[in-house]
Write a structure and sequence with these properties.
The chain has helices at about 1-50, 65-75, 80-90, 95-110, 115-130, 130-140, 150-155, 170-195, 200-210, 215-225, 225-240, 245-250, 260-270, 275-300; strands at about 50-55, 60. It is mainly alpha-helical. The chain folds into 2 domains: about 1-50, no CATH class; about 80-305, MetI-like (MetI-like fold). Strands 1-2 form a two-stranded antiparallel sheet. A hairpin with a 7-residue loop joins strand 1 (about 50-55) and strand 2. Helix 3 packs across helix 13.
């Protein structure tokens, strides 16, 4: 009798929770399979491959941490590796620039002006445009000859033309400008959502007390946009460290390796020189750098964020 009650209890439990849970996992299975095949397994495989000397088409040979030692100490390879780290940090300077510009434009677009929908659409277009196609257009804008758009403007102003992407000094600022322009649309939309979530009554009460625009921004807008700023800063930093397409199309890491970032150095090691072990070591180092920077953001920046 007790056994039959137990069976009936399990049947009721399965009818209530079992089928629903099984269906949920069944729907999650395709996404889980994609994650395992295209994200989890490649990440683990990269860590393992970094412990091998694997110069295709030769067979891999286990060498432990020699790839890491080679990157940090080899007199020929180490300068290039360290320069790629510095270039990555240089390129990441575009993140705060993008954040400030996006916030200012979002505040302008948050006002009641004629044709604001057209402006919002125009600013968002770079976010949905192919980065490769956009990079080709910017190649023409930065063309070092006289018919390049920017050089044509300089000629009209009576100024000397510039080599732009072929100048080791100007190449990285040009890439940063392209990165700011292409990432601005997405950030503006996020900032607009945050601005429109701030209650208007707060501004009205502050204006009654005599607060000006600067005071409103400092004590109302910026604190309440803290979570939005933190999100954009974190995602922007991650995207800047793994930027590749615009570098590959516009400079190929040059001139004189002035725009060779860690992600592009990884690509060159893997798919130009077929040094898969070294490339995997670079990928692991890039992951560790991202992990440390993200931890620092959550540890120190997140404490200053006000969540309402």
């Amino acid at each position: 009798m007790q056994g039959q009650q137990t069976v009936r209890h399990h049947r009721r439990w399965w009818a209530r929770w079992g089928e629903e849970t099984f269906s949920a996992y069944l729907f999650l299975l395709p996404s889980l399979a994609i994650f395992v095949v295209f994200t989890f397994f490649p990440a683990i495989f990269s860590v393992v491959a970094s412990l091998f000397r694997w110069n295709m088409p030769a067979k891999p040979v286990f060498i432990g941490f020699e790839n890491y030692h080679y990157l940090f100490t080899d007199p020929f390879e180490s300068p290039v590796f360290w320069k790629s780290i510095l270039n990555t940090g240089y390129f990441a300077l575009g993140v705060p620039i993008n954040l400030v510009v996006s916030l200012l434009l979002a505040m302008l677009l948050n006002r009641k002006i004629r044709g604001v929908g057209i402006f919002r659409t125009a600013f968002f277009l770079p976010a949905i445009t192919s980065v490769a196609a956009v990079s080709v257009v910017w190649l023409w804008l930065f063309h070092p000859a006289q018919y390049g758009l920017f050089n044509s403007i300089l000629i009209e102003l009576g100024l000397p033309i510039q080599r732009w992407l072929r100048d080791p000094v100007l190449a990285m600022p040009c890439l940063i400008a392209v990165g700011v322009w292409s990432g601005m649309g997405y950030n503006i939309i996020i900032f607009l959502a945050g601005l429109q979530a701030i209650p208007r009554t707060l501004y009205e009460a502050a204006r009654i007390d005599g607060a000006g625009p600067v005071t409103l921004f400092r004590f109302i807008t910026l604190p309440l946009l803290g979570p939005t700023v933190f999100y954009i800063l974190t995602v922007g930093l991650i995207n800047s460290l793994k930027a590749f397409t615009e570098i590959d199309v516009m400079t190929q890491g040059g001139p004189l390796q002035a725009t060779t970032t860690l992600s592009y150095y990884l690509y060159q090691s893997a798919f130009q020189f077929f040094q898969m072990g070294k490339a995997s070591a670079v990928a692991v180092i890039l992951f560790v750098i991202l992990l440390i920077l993200t931890w620092v953001e959550f540890r120190y920046v997140d404490q200053r964020v006000f969540y309402n």
